């Protein structure tokens, strides 16, 4: 009996053999009634197999031969799917780990040196509770900002084309228009200036109690000025460099130096609390001459709470730096777990370190904890290492501010220029043709803040459909005036560095400056604006409960920010400017 054709249906559903295996596999297998049990990919009649992702699946009957084939193909598909999911999981784990360490480095900066002083002012009990609430508040604000970015991405409003450093200003622009973007830019600029000032103050304080200090006999102000100018001699060339790539390992070195500093502080504090001193302190408490540590743990006032709030805000400060860190992740969808894990870890470390230091030094803690160490070679080494960290970290805070000012003084942006570059032979340029002005979403956020209109270049864009044969499109820089490294840039950066040095000399208290900066600009960016932007952008999409939460958190952040800023300015900044002494 001759073999049946590929399109003929068998009479009894039994299998038969064929001299053409492709005819048998590709034709007969498709003629049986469909069964959900086994699926195999079809092959073309020429014998070539389609890619697995584009194969057309056909149902085959239950048979040992086809069961084995289906099992092999299912195993292959399952293995490839498992490998793909494992690869995504590994990349996500690596992304979470990298983002976690980056967020920890962002939080645990030089501001951590003032945390024991913050706990001393806020009370040990209220300080621990405040750090926990602060970490939760930062997580809430971070989620609100990430939701705003995801909304703008889904609405195709150009958020994907915005640089990571400008995403916050872009969200503000879409929520409040130009005033919102200007507010974010101004608060960010104040934060950068304050960070630079705090770095110089910390470096000058630590340098003053080391053997390399420039001592001006009989004048503490001139001594401070001389040490500040000594730091400026180091940070000025670094801030005027064309690239900061050589400072890429500064953050890691800073974390190591900070951990070694706290280890040294705790080790010397254990020696400081000798058994004799502890017995004398216990006897004084029993005699009623001094309050116990338990009583001191609850001692605080409005002034102390305002200082604690400002320093704690400065020591976290994650929301303003969310988007640059998220943009560096291979899997941004794993960013939220990294934020939560980093906040929990940093909060636990802050509570443990700060309360241990305050208890070891018997509630006598200066604004910069490293100044409490006694003179010794180990203390000098730790202080000089932190001075090095401060002067190397200073450009990372000042250079972004300098670049923003330089771009503001450059003039308006110019539309992107297209040209056709030949793959063989010289580049061919074409005559321009008139096109309308580019949309606002493609313009610089800074240009939109300043209300500048985008100029159209003489070489206006040409459509990709106009590409001549053998040519490829090449895109020039979007600025008509490329920023050259000239004496004007150097003078501008030198002026900004000298201005921060003047402020560091005028307000010589590390804890006071950090408290004011955290209560003012960092609190605005972290706690006031995120719920407001979320409420405005989502609008009718929010449930009533979510809208009420946004309104409540906005007013809570606004009231706390205004109250803490006014108290900190009145009790810290004004005495500093008037008497040049750090209040305690």
Automatic annotation (TrEMBL):
Predominant cellular place of this UniProt entry's protein: membrane
Disordered: annotated segments: 1-22, 456-479
Keywords: Membrane, Transmembrane, Transmembrane helix
Record field: compositional bias (Basic and acidic residues): 456-469
Membrane topology label: Multi-pass membrane protein
Annotated TM spans: 114-135, 182-201, 221-239, 246-270, 308-326, 338-361, 381-402, 490-507, 513-536, 548-569
Domain Amino acid transporter transmembrane: start-end pairs: 99-566
MF terms (GO), sorted A to Z: L-amino acid transmembrane transporter activity
Compositionally biased residues, Polar residues: 11-22
Annotated localization: Membrane
GO cellular component terms listed in the entry, alphabetical order: vacuolar membrane
Protein's name according to its UniProt entry: Amino acid transporter, transmembrane
